[in-house]
Structure formats: C-alpha cells, structure tokens
C-alpha cells in the first residue's frame, strides 16, 4: 500500500453498515424515549486495561521501570474535572454511583441542558429499580424527598386538558382523574 488510498480516513465520514448502527446493546448509548437515544461522545475505557495493552505488545518487551500514574481520589476527580472542562459542550455530567452493591457509571455532555438533566434522571431511576417504570421511580423519589417541587402551571393545565376537565370540575374530580397511585387514569 504505497499510496495509502486503501486506508479508511475518519475525516472522510465512512459509511456505516447496519450492524454498526445497531446501538441497542451498546453500553455507551442510553435510550431516553422511543426512538430517542443519547450517545456518550467520550467512550470511557479502563485506564489500566489501556496501559496493559500498549505495554504488552508482542513487539515490545515489558518495561518494568515505567511507572504508572498514581490514582487517588484527588487525581481522578481532577482528571474528570479537566475532561469535562475540555469538551465543547455547555453542559455535562460524569457520575459514578453505587446501587445495592453494584457500581454504575454514566457520562454525558451536550449543549441541551434539558437533555443532560433528563438523561441523568432517567439513568438514575433505571439504576434504582429496573423493574419499575421510570416515571414512577422518579415520582416516588421526589415525593419521599424533602425537596419541595413547584410544578409549572403549564403541566397542570396539560393534565387538566388531557383528562377532559374544565374550570367547573372540582379538585375531587382532578384527584379522581389522577388516581390514587399518582398516575393518570386512562
């Protein structure tokens, strides 16, 4: 290959096969709604695995004199800080959390503040209880917390319209439409 023309150039934007587009099982893709996905732009890799791969190349003898960086809480937090700071996005998060003994991580950056918040909340709710609908988990967490929530008037108006209620209906009618479990009766 003298000319190098057969090598794919990432700058050319190669065409992806259908198998490469199957994102349902990708650990860096989070489905936030039917047909809506959030894709993490920075694939998180285990730093020790990446060092081991490069150190154990068959062509290179292992150099025991190389020192690995010291991983401390401070250095990891500093690296995460710098990593988020270096993105071109306005908003983002990088979270490591423990749920019933299982550690889970999630990272997202975006220029859409609502997408970032929604993704964080959906991810968290799925970690808390994968068998309960996300909206129910979020409702329980908010109602059990000591954080007062002020609902935008437009959301209440939307609920009233959805249920076919009018100003003549009572609060009891609204509560009956919402139902005892907090979910809207259909």
Automatic annotation (TrEMBL):
Residues 42-56 have a biased composition (Polar residues). Residues 1-74 are annotated as: Disordered. Residues 19-28 have a biased composition (Acidic residues). Residues 1-14, 57-71 have a biased composition (Basic and acidic residues). InterPro entries: DUF7500 (IPR055923). It comes from the Archaea. This is DIX domain-containing protein.
């Amino acid at each position: 290959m003298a000319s190098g023309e057969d090598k794919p150039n990432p700058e050319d934007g190669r065409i992806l096969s259908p198998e490469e587009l199957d994102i349902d099982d990708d650990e860096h893709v989070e489905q936030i709604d039917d047909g809506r996905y959030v894709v993490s732009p920075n694939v998180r890799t285990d730093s020790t695995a990446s060092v081991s791969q490069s150190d154990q190349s068959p062509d290179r003898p292992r150099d025991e004199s190389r020192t690995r960086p010291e991983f401390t809480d401070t250095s990891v937090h500093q690296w995460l800080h710098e990593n988020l700071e270096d993105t071109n996005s306005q908003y983002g998060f990088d979270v490591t959390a423990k749920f019933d003994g299982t550690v889970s991580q999630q990272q997202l950056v975006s220029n859409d503040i609502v997408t970032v918040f929604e993704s964080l909340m959906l991810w968290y709710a799925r970690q808390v209880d994968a068998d309960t609908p996300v909206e129910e988990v979020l409702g329980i967490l908010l109602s059990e917390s000591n954080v007062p929530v002020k609902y935008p008037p437009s959301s209440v108006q939307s609920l009233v319209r959805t249920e076919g209620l009018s100003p003549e209906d009572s609060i009891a009618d609204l509560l009956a439409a919402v139902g005892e479990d907090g979910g809207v009766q259909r």
